[in-house]
Amino acid sequence: MQPLRRVTPATVDVLETLIGEPEPVWGLLVVSRTGRPAGSVYPILERLESLEWVTSEWELDSGRSGPRRRLYRLTPGGLTAARAAVDAHLVRMQRRRAAAEADPARVPTGPTGLTGTTRSTSAAGTTLTPAGAMLAVTRAWGARAAGAGA
Fold it and tell me: Per the confidence metrics, is the pTM higher than 0.90?
């Protein structure tokens, strides 16, 4: 079994769903339970299977109508690793939250600057802006630039 190199919030959601299910689950059930798009869930399930955290098999004839479903289950080692990965992720999030509450200027932003809050510095000092407002400003400037180039 190999370690996960990157544990994203979507991966944590998938792992939590798998941990909470004693029986094998199919991909669309994981999509439904996590609220994540299929385009995120299925690659995560494939990656977990390639790392030997998860096994999968095609559903046997269940007597229900519709196509067969691919059923996923954590391996015993995968269950242990999944619990550890989820716990470590929660600890990281708690530390980030505590750091943000202690010093709002240290709030991390995503690579696009659109996650949570966005920092901006001017002569007046540093301010934190909700990411949605920054997105609106970014789109407005993008529209202006596109119009100027036409």
Answer: no
Sign of the four-CA dihedral 89, 90, 91, 93: positive
> CATH assignment of 9-101?
1.10.10.10
pLDDT, tens digit, 9 for 90 and up, residues 34-92: 999 999 999 999 999 999 999 999 998 778 888 899 999 999 999 999 999 999 999 99
All CATH 1.10.10.10 domain ranges of the chain, comma separated, are: 9-101
